[in-house]
């Protein structure tokens, strides 16, 4: 807090400074548990500028101030970060040497929503830039319903039932075909036997008639033998 007061004093004491801080985006919006990168730009920048640089970034929300990132004379001071952001803020060092403050905030929370101010100073020169972040609650995605454990045995039982029915139908059809074939064979044998009997009876009748005619003719030829 003392560092912040000293920084504010140095900023207010500078009326016509040359250091300018701008935001690349005035507002950000993200969803809970996502990651986001907040960015500020400052000019001018030189090779020796970084060693005497003071950076103080903070979040203002619900009348509460939380330190986000702190650099003192070119050296990061991670212990200055508020517990709310502990382990969730990373700064791009290469971008910082190029005059850009890129803070990556991970695992966003809904209470990360608020105003973010970043103050940059060097000696008696300084400036600040601000942006806003809104974090919305994550929408629960419907989880695909997994089939119950008993569904697989049930489906297998149905498959077995269908297979059994098919086998039963096939066996029944085979039995019907066999019975029908046996019936046809039996009828055919009866027909054949009946035809042979008719031929036999016809032949016997003809022979009997011939014998009767022959006997009568014999009686006519030998009348004396009739008494015998």
Describe this structure as you would to a colleague:
The chain is an alpha+beta fold and about 230 residues long. It is built from 3 helices and 10 strands. The strands form 2 sheets. Strands 2-10-9-4-5-6 form a 6-stranded mixed β-sheet, with helices on one face. Strands 1-3-8-7 form a 4-stranded antiparallel β-sheet. Strand 4 and strand 5 (about 65-70) form a beta hairpin. The termini are far apart.
Q: How big a fraction of the residues is strand?
A: 25-35%
Uncertain segments: 5-16, 199-207, 209-222
Q: How large is the count of helical segments?
A: 3
Q: Characterize the biggest β-sheet.
A: 6 strands, mixed
Distance between the termini: 168 Å
Instruction: Tell me the number of strands.
Output: 10
Shape: rod-shaped
Question: Keywords, please?
Answer:
29% strand; four-stranded antiparallel beta sheet; six-stranded mixed beta sheet; 228 residues; alpha+beta
Question: Concise description?
Answer:
By secondary structure, this protein is of the alpha+beta class. 39% of the residues lie in helices and 29% in strands. Residues 5-16, 199-207 and 209-222 have low confidence and may be disordered.
């Amino acid at each position: 807090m003392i560092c912040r007061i000293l920084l504010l004093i140095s900023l207010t004491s500078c009326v016509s400074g040359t250091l300018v801080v701008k935001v690349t985006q005035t507002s950000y919006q993200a969803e809970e548990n996502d990651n986001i990168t907040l960015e500020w730009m400052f000019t001018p920048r030189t090779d020796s500028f970084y060693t005497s640089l003071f950076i103080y970034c903070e979040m203002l929300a619900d009348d509460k101030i939380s330190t986000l990132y702190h650099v003192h004379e070119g050296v990061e001071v991670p212990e200055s970060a508020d517990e709310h952001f502990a382990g969730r803020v990373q700064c791009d060092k290469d971008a910082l040497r190029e005059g850009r403050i890129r803070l990556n905030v991970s695992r966003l929370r809904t209470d990360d929503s608020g105003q973010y101010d970043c103050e940059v100073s060097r000696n008696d020169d300084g400036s600040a830039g601000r942006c806003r972040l809104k974090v919305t609650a994550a929408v629960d995605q419907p989880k695909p319903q997994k089939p119950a454990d008993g569904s697989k045995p049930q489906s297998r039982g149905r498959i077995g039932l269908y297979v059994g029915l098919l086998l039963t139908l096939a066996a029944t059809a085979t039995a019907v075909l066999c019975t029908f074939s046996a019936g046809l064979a039996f009828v055919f044998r009866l027909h054949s036997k009946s035809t042979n009997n008719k031929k036999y009876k016809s032949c016997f009748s003809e022979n009997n008639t011939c014998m009767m005619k022959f006997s009568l003719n014999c009686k006519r030829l030998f009348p004396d033998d009739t008494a015998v």
